[in-house]
Structure formats: structure tokens, C-alpha cells
What we know:
Elements: H1 2-10, E1 16-20, H2 21-30, H3 33-37, E2 44-48, H4 63-84, E3 92-95, H5 100-108, E4 112-116, H6 120-134, E5 142-145, E6 150-152, H7 192-203, E7 209-212, H8 216-226, E8 233-235, H9 239-248, H10 269-275, E9 282-286, H11 295-307, E10 311-315, H12 324-331, E11 336-339, H13 344-348, E12 353-358, H14 362-371, E13 375-377, H15 384-394, E14 398-400, H16 408-421, H17 423-441, H18 446-467
Parallel strand pairs: 1-2, 3-4, 4-7, 7-8, 9-10, 9-12, 10-11, 12-13, 13-14
Antiparallel strand pairs: 5-6
Amino acid sequence: MLNLAELLSLSGLAVTFLNSDHNHRRLLQYTDVSARFAQYPGFQFQTISDGLAADHPRSGLRLMEMFDAMSSNSRPLLKDLLVESRQPVNCIIGDGIMGWVIDVADEVKIPVIHFRTIGACCFWIYFCIPEVIRAKELPMRVSSISELGIVLKNEEKEDMDRLITTVPGMETFLRLRDLPSSCRVSDNTTNLGFQLFMNETQRSLRVNALILNTFEELEEPILSQIRTKFSNIYTIGPLHLHLKTRLIGSNTTTSFNQSSNSFWEVDRSCIAWLDKQPPRSVIYVSFGSIATLTREQLMEFWHGLVNSKQRFLWVIRPDSLVGLDRERESLEEERGYIVGWAPQEEVLAHRAVGGFLTHSGWNSTLESVVAGQPMICWPCFGDQRVNSRFVGEVWKLGLDMKDHVCDRKVVKNMVNDLMVERREEFVKSTDRMAKLATKSVSDGGFSSYNLNRLIEHIRLMNVRAQDK
């Protein structure tokens, strides 16, 4: 969202970035966003409450509490802000998973554009879920779920490799195990998480346009399917690369490597460590900003990395594991380096890095694509299961580890496959996709063209609002 806001600000649009009080405090604590956006005269930050207590963890495991609180608490606050705004608001770009923004916009008669921060592949699956249910390919025959897996009923077994044939464009490779984690329920009529993602995606049919952080060369077959339902789509990604490309041609003072949109304190000591390592010798390990590990999982990854004999840089957030601080010293190893948070884009672009062991979040996936880094995908929840399938099976940019238990032997073998045995194979495919990403955001590329179209679309809304 911040990357998109800066791209629009660069074009001369007046942008108000509305964030929760909690998130904005985190940004101010760990980033330079205030100084960075001060160079855009038409830009301003505003905040509203998300309705949660200050000590609420706001974690992925308590996602529904966050959505419920925002829907009930933030909805009236947003309406008041729009009504009382001194500067006329001609367009709202809303996170597409918060459909209640459409209701508020309808009340105050302001057009809405949805921005979905997941990939086109997962968006399309969410959109097609009603048809999957009608075809009786869902719900799953399960009794309960855990964060990273499922527990099957004793009397019936589910074939997790069963193909899902009712998502157009994915009939030949999308398996039950590849569906988003919200689909891992035995009763789709009562599970609130399942209903949320399905219903909110359907509500995007009501908006003025749809923005996706992807590029045509990466997801064109799926984008073609989405366009059968949505006539006005703007594919303008990868946003972080698009922003960097346009900043180079402007007079702004942003330092690409020093800037951050992180909710965690960046430890830049890892860059000095990487500077001392041979080219493409380090595998970078990070499971994102939300996922947590059990102690058993952490130790299996640690043993697998150590036994692979490869160098590794591992991000272990302060909240990744309860009691981690007492164990951090025991995890130190001569070939490895551990930090609480890393400047990921800079790390992935470093000459010493040769692979990425990732949770397959969409931002991490795109950042790896842009940097030309092959991936080992260990998805945790949400859209990550879909992304990992596309990385491994469709785009051939790495290995999908979700088919395996978290085991040190599996980790060791996959790290060696990625970094040694199949290295040339993956380097060839990742280099090709990285070049296509760069081409897309350059002058004449599809993403660059679509961003220009989006900017003109918003300006036209402004003209129409003034005419009224």
C-alpha cells in the first residue's frame, strides 16, 4: 500500500494514506516514512482506531478478531473522516479484503477501487470457491485444522492430491493441498474465515476497478480468466521494482537500500556479513512478519541447514518462538548468521545470496522473482499454499516443500538441490523471469502502461467530481 501511495504521489496526485493507529506507531518507530513522504506536497498520513486493545497481538492466528473489530469500529470512523474531510475525496483505493469500505463509500457516494495484495492466482481461486462448492469439490472431509496442517477423521481419509477441476486455468495442477488455508474446513457454511475470503472477493464485482500487484508475463493465463469477470483491471507490479524504477527517473531523495516499510527493527549487520561471503553461496531464510514456529520446527530447520553444509542467513523475529532469546546463542553456527529482521530486498539482491527459503508470502515471492533468486517454499497459511504451487509447478522457479513434513533430512536435501544439484536449472529460469519483471515496469512495459492508465483513470474521476 505504501509503495502504491508513493507511485501515485510521484504522479502529482494528492494522496491521503489511512492507517490504523497501531500500525502507524510501528511504522514511525522503525522506518523513515514521515521524512520520505514529506517530499510530496499533496501527501498526508491519517489514522483511525482498529478497535482492538493495545496489547492485542494482531497475529494471523487471530485474523477474524481483527476483521470483526475493524468492521464494527473502523467503519463509522471512516465515514466521519470522509464526510468531514477539508479536501474533497474523489476516489478511495481500499484493501480488497475489507469489503465494508464499499458500503461506506456507497453511503458518501465516492467511487472505490480495490487493491488486492495477494497474487492473481489466489484471488482467482477465492473468486471461484462458490463454483468449487457447487461441484462438491469442497468442503474437505476433515474434523479440525491446525495452523500448518489438518487432522483427518478416523473413519474417512481425504486425498490431498485430488485435483480441483473447477477453477478455470488450473484444472491440471491445482490439488486439494494447494488451496488457501481458509479452505481447510469441514463445514464451509459456518466457518467465518472461509466465508470472509470467499464473500469479500465476490464483493470486488461492485467496485470501479481492480488493482493487482503482479505483472502480465508472470500470471497472464490466470489474468485472462479474471478478465472474463472483471473488465477493468490494472496489473502494475512488481510494485517495489516499479517504484524504484520511477524514482530513478525523478528528483526525489529516497535511498533505496536504507528505506523500509517494516514493522520490525532492521538489523543491517547482516549486510556486512554477506559482504564477506562468496558469490551465490548463502541461502537466505525468512518466514515473514507473522508466521511462528514451534521449537521442534525451528530445530528441524536448524539441523537441516547445518547438515547441508551451506552458508545461511536466517531471520528469526523476536516473537517467532516463545523463549527464543534464551536459545539464540545455541543456534549460532560458523556457516550461519541470525538476525531479528533483515532488509529483505537488499539481501535478495546481494551477490552472496543464491537462494531463498521462504514462507511464500506474495511480497516475498515477488521480491525473490525480481532478484532472480530460486526459492524453497514452506507455506504457513493464507495464500502461501497457492503461491508455492505456482513457484514449483507452474513457473519452475524453485521447490515446493509443503508436500513434506518439517524434517531435517528434507530441509538438507532441498537446500542442496537448490544450491548445488539443480542450481543451473533454477538460475536459468529465475534470471529469465527477473528480466521479464524489469521489462514490465520499464517504459513501454505492460505494468508501466497500466500504471499510467490507472493515474489517468483517477484524474478522470477528479474531473467528473468537479463537474458535479
